[in-house]
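Duplicate of #3305? Posting structure anyway:
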């Protein structure tokens, strides 16, 4: 299966692939929130979650803030953070893959152009 195909099934599978990989990355990001300093950088990336759910913005039953880390206690908070980071990671992976695919296509076209220019002309 070629990633980037225009057929509907392949487009669906591409999206599913990016969601699964984004989900795996998001689980790692949510767990990394417990690491000092790195946890606060990740928490800053999740600022929209804190704005949408003010109960996550202070120490309580759902989350616990430390000096430079964040410990998520409730399953609701885990779910919300994982979903947020899954969407962000999937979109970023899709953008990255489309850039790589375009660069490969340009390189392939340049090779074909050079190959056609180097062929002897028959008259």
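Output from current build:
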């Amino acid at each position: 299966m070629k990633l980037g195909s225009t057929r509907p099934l392949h487009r669906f599978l591409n999206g599913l692939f990016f969601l699964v990989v984004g989900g795996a990355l998001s689980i790692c990001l949510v767990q990394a929130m417990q690491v000092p300093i790195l946890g606060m950088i990740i928490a800053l990336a999740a600022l929209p979650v804190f704005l949408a759910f003010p109960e996550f913005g202070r120490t309580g039953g759902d989350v616990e803030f430390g000096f430079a880390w964040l410990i998520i206690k409730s399953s609701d908070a885990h779910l919300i953070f994982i979903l947020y980071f899954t969407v962000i990671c999937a979109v970023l992976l899709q953008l990255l893959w489309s850039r790589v695919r375009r660069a490969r296509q340009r390189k392939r076209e340049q090779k074909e152009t050079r190959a056609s220019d180097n062929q002897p002309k028959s008259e």
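Confirmed duplicate; merging threads. The beta strands are 63-65, 70-72. The two ends are 42 Å apart (CA to CA).
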